[in-house]
Amino acid sequence: MREIGVGLLGLGNVGAGVVRLLADNEKAIEARLGAKLVIKAAAVRDVDRERRVDVDPAILTTDVDGISARDDIEIVCELIGGVTKARDLVLGAIAKRKQIVTANKALLAVHGDEIYAAAERAGVDIYYEAAVCGGIPIIRTLREGLASDRIESIAGIVNGTSNFIVTAMAKGGREFSEVLAEAQEQGYAEADPTLDIGGGDAAHKLAILAMLSFDCRVDLDKIYVEGIESLEAIDYQMAKDFGFVIKPLALGRRYPEGIDLRVHPTMIPASWLLADVPDTKNALYVNSYALGASMYYGAGAGMMPTAMSVVSDLIEVARNICAGVTGSKPMRSQQSLESREILPIEKVETRYYLRFSVEDRPGVLGQLTTVLGAHGISISELLQRGERGPNAQVSVIAFTHKTQEGRLRAALSAIDSTALTSAPTMTIRLAS
Amino acid sequence: MREIGVGLLGLGNVGAGVVRLLADNEKAIEARLGAKLVIKAAAVRDVDRERRVDVDPAILTTDVDGISARDDIEIVCELIGGVTKARDLVLGAIAKRKQIVTANKALLAVHGDEIYAAAERAGVDIYYEAAVCGGIPIIRTLREGLASDRIESIAGIVNGTSNFIVTAMAKGGREFSEVLAEAQEQGYAEADPTLDIGGGDAAHKLAILAMLSFDCRVDLDKIYVEGIESLEAIDYQMAKDFGFVIKPLALGRRYPEGIDLRVHPTMIPASWLLADVPDTKNALYVNSYALGASMYYGAGAGMMPTAMSVVSDLIEVARNICAGVTGSKPMRSQQSLESREILPIEKVETRYYLRFSVEDRPGVLGQLTTVLGAHGISISELLQRGERGPNAQVSVIAFTHKTQEGRLRAALSAIDSTALTSAPTMTIRLAS
Fold this sequence. Notes:
2 copies of one chain form a homodimer. Chain A is α/β, with parallel strands linked by helices. Chain A has 3 domains: 3-134 and 303-334, NAD(P)-binding Rossmann-like Domain (Rossmann fold); 138-299, 2-Layer Sandwich (Dihydrodipicolinate Reductase, domain 2); 346-430, ACT domain (Alpha-Beta Plaits), CATH 3.30.70. Chain A has helices at residues 13-24, 26-33, 84-95, 105-122, 138-145, 160-170, 176-185, 194-197, 200-214, 233-241, 303-323, 364-374, 405-416, and strands at 3-9, 36-43, 60-61, 75-78, 99-102, 126-127, 151-157, 216-217, 224-225, 244-255, 258-269, 281-288, 292-299, 338-339, 349-350, 352-359, 379-385, 393-400, 403-404, 421-430. In chain A, strands 7, 9, 10, 11, 12, 13, 16, 17, 18 and 20 form a 10-stranded mixed sheet that branches. A 6-stranded parallel sheet of chain A has the order 3-2-1-4-5-6, with helices on both faces. A two-stranded parallel sheet of chain A has the order 8-14. The longest helix of chain A is centred in the C-terminal third of the chain and has 21 residues, at 303-323. At the A-B interface, helix 1, helix 2, helix 5, strand 13 and helix 11 of A face helix 1, helix 2, helix 5, strand 13 and helix 11 of B.
C-alpha cells in the first residue's frame, strides 16, 4: 500500500489529536483512502516536553525549517499558529511543492491572497477545513456542496468562547467578569481572552467564509468588529423578555452595492435554530438562492474535533496525490475572485435595541424620542424599567424599526452629549 | 473554455430546476469550474408537454436509450425515478463510460451494490448528493468532511412529508387523516402518500446513509420500518406533556454485534435541536468519535433545493473530467465495505411510550403493571387519563425504562390478547 508522508509543524493540542486520530482510525482511513498516511516528522520547540499523546521520539525535531526539505514528506501540516513564522513556513513549503493542510485562520485571513496565489502557481493543494468552525465541515460545504448555488447571506456562531459566555449570561443573574472567570477556569477562555471575546477571531473566520460565500477578496481590516465585553445582565434579561436571544454572530450579506461583513453580539428571535446553539458549540446558517435556509452545527474547537477536520483534509490531499491531480481543484481560483466593496458600518441598515441610562424625571422619555424622531428613527417598542425615586437612574429600552447605522449614531451622539443620559447608550443590533 | 456535455434522463420537477439553475448561475458556475456545463439532450416522454422552465425544443427527445450513445455527452444525469428502467439506463450509461449523476434514492437503495461496482469497474464517477435530504450536502459530509472519523450513530429527519404532518399534529387538536388531506392540498404529500408516510422513502435514504456512515453493505429489506399513520392526537399531546416531541426518524447505530437500522416515529426530548426542525425541513444528526455531535439542516426536497445538489454534483464530476481523474475517488470503494449484520428489531433495546386503551374499573392498572413486571419491564412514569364512568374507556400512558423489544412485544401480546385492553396498545420508541 502506498505511503504518503506527512510533516507536522507544531505538536500542541491539535497536533496531538492528529497523531491520536490517525492511530485510532488507522484501518478505516486506509480502507477509505487506499493508501497510508504516515507522520514522518513533527517540528516542536522542545523535544523533551511531555505530550498529550504517545509519539515516536524519533520523529520529533526542533528543525521546523527542515521539514519542507525532506523528500519523504509530501504534505506539510501547519499547526503552529501565528501569522509571521507560519507565513514563511507555508510559503517555503509551497516553494518546495509540498501540499499544505493548515488550521490557521489568522494566517489565511491576513495572508490568504498571497498564499492561495502561491499555491495556485506552484500547482499544490491548500486545504484548511479546520480553520473555521473546528470540526464542522463548513469549508467543503461552501466550496463543493453549494458550488452551484448563489449564497445571499451567512450568519455564524464561530467563536466557542464567546458563545459559552453569552449562553451562561442568558441563564441570568451574572455579570460578564464573573462568567469570563468561570470560562477561564473551565478552560473555555484563554488567560488573555481578547481575540475571542473581542471578536477578532470571529473576524478571521468571517474573512475566510466570505471569500468562499461571495467569491470575493476580503480585506480583514474592513470587517466591522464589536465584542461581547460591554453587554450587561440586564441586556440578556431584556432580550429574553422581548422574545430574543443574544448570540455572538459573524454576519455576511451580499448587496448590489457591496458586501456587508460584521462581527458583533446580535439579538435574534428565540425561535431561530441559531438561538438554540449552546455553550461552546458553533453553527453556520446559510441562506442561498436555490437551497434557501440551511444550517451546519457542531464542535467549533477542541483537540479531537479540530484534528478530525485536519485528518479529513490529509485524506483528501492524499487522494489527490494518488490521483496525480494536486493543485487542479483550487478552493476558489484566485482569478475567479472579484474585488467587491465592503460596506462601511455607517451604511448598514438594521433594527436596534437601545438601552438608555436616564434619570427618572418628567419629560425624559419625551426628549429621548424627540431626538430620535428628529433623526428619522422610529421606535417599535419602548419600556421603562427601574424604581422611581429622587435621583433614581432608570433604564429605558427601545427597539427601533430598520434604520441606517450612520443616522442612529448621529442621534445617539446627540443624546449622549447632553445631560439626558448618565452613561453611553448600549446598542445591540438585531438580525435582519 | 472547455464544454462538458450533459444528458438529462427526465425533465420533470428536478430536471426543470437543473435547467433553470444552470442558466441563472451560469457565470458563477463557469468561474468556479473553469469549464462550461451544457445540456445537450433531455429525454422526455412527450416533447410537446408544457415545461416549468424555458428549454430549447431542439434538445428534447423521446429516445431515452439514445442519450448514452451520444459522443457529445460526458455526464448522464438520471432523474426519471423508479428502479427498473432507471437501473437499465444507468448500467447502460456506465457501460458506455459515461459519468453518472443521479437523484434516485430508491435505485441506489435497491441496486446500489451492482451500480457502484459497475461504476468502479468502468472507472466512472457516480455522484448522488440529491438522493438523500435534497439540498443538504450530507453525502459529501459523510464521505469527505467526516472521512477521518468513526461514526457511532445517526438520526435523521429525512422525509419532508412525514415531518410536515407530525409538525402540524404537534400543534394540537387534529387527527392524521385531516392533516394528511391538508398536506396533499398544499402539495406536500402525493395522491398516494404510502411511500412517504409509511417510512419506505426514509428507509431508502437510511440504506444510503448507513453505507457511508458504517462502511457496510445494507440489505434494504432488513431495515425495520414503521410509518406515522397510526399515531393519534393524544399521542402528540402526551409527548408534549412529558417534555418530548414526536419526529419521524431514520436511526442508525453501530454495535459490536451489528448495525441497528430503523425508521419509525420517535419521541425525542423537546430540548434537542432535531425537535426544532419544522414542517418539510430535513436534518441529519451525527454522533462520531472525534467530532462528537454535529447536525446538518435544510430543505430536503423541492425543485430548486434538489436541483442545487444535482448541479453541484455535475460541477464536481466536470472537475474530475477536466483533471482526468473520473472514477479515481469512489464514494466508498466496494472492496472496503464490510458485510455487517443488521440487528433484528426484537434485539433492539430502547425506552418506550405505551398507550393502553383500557376500561376504567378497579384493578386494571395493577393487572397491566403485573404483566409488564412479569416480563421484566419496568415503568418510569405512569399516567391515567380519561373520564371515570360506567364502561368508560380510559388511556393509560406508561414510559418504560430501557428494555429489549422482543421482551416488550411478548408482554404487549400477553396484554392485548386478554380483555384488559379494548384496542391494540400504541407503542412509540424513545430516542436513546
